[in-house]
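I am sending you the entry underneath: sequence plus fold tokens. Let me know what the token row says about the fold:
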Amino acid sequence: MPILAYTGLTLLLAISFYILHKLRHVHILLYDVRDQTHHDQAGLFRQLEALQGLYIELDLKHSLPPTRGWAASPDFLLEVARHARTLKQATVLECSSGISTLVLARCMQLNGGGKVYSLEHDVHFAAQTRAQLRRHGLQDFATVIDAPLTPYDFDGQSWPWYDLAQLPELPSFDLLVIDGPPQATRAQARYPAGPLLFPRLTAGATVYLDDASRPDEQAILRRWRQEFPALAQSSPGCEKGCALLRVG
């Protein structure tokens, strides 16, 4: 066979193998896209179900603010609401205000008593939450506390966390919901909730940590497990991850 013909055949085979490789890669990508689309659709459906369940559970007369982006997801809110509805005359503390404040305040209203205290470092978000509470007629069941981030020292390290100076001198809390400070504040930004607030939990109290599937929150949970072994940890299935801690 002439050298030129042999070279041409070799080049043609190489091109054919390359095209087949690329086609196989595209084929695999299409399957991945299909699977991801199905997963996303199923996840969206679950959130719609949870949102509908939340409206039914709370018998709301006005619409809630959006539950996408930084806000707590419907499945997390429903998980918290169902537990809060079992409490009577509860004292609830929340780290970060927003839609969860409305949900918890409505639970207290339906329960016939109880109070929510929400720590918020952003004055704009605090004002928005207060306006939403008034819109829903829930201002008597929740207080949004302006709590700018201030440095706290733990093991020689500084953590910017909510200033507790304005928090009323309450003896203990029955429910603690942790959805702040923002992750961008520093590594393991929500860790201080443990040493600062866990000692003030009542017997049988419950703690909910949002975004628990993130590496930062997983690291926090490991630290809390070592430092507070009396708190049993579990993980209800939620979109962004949810950790549930109970006082024995």
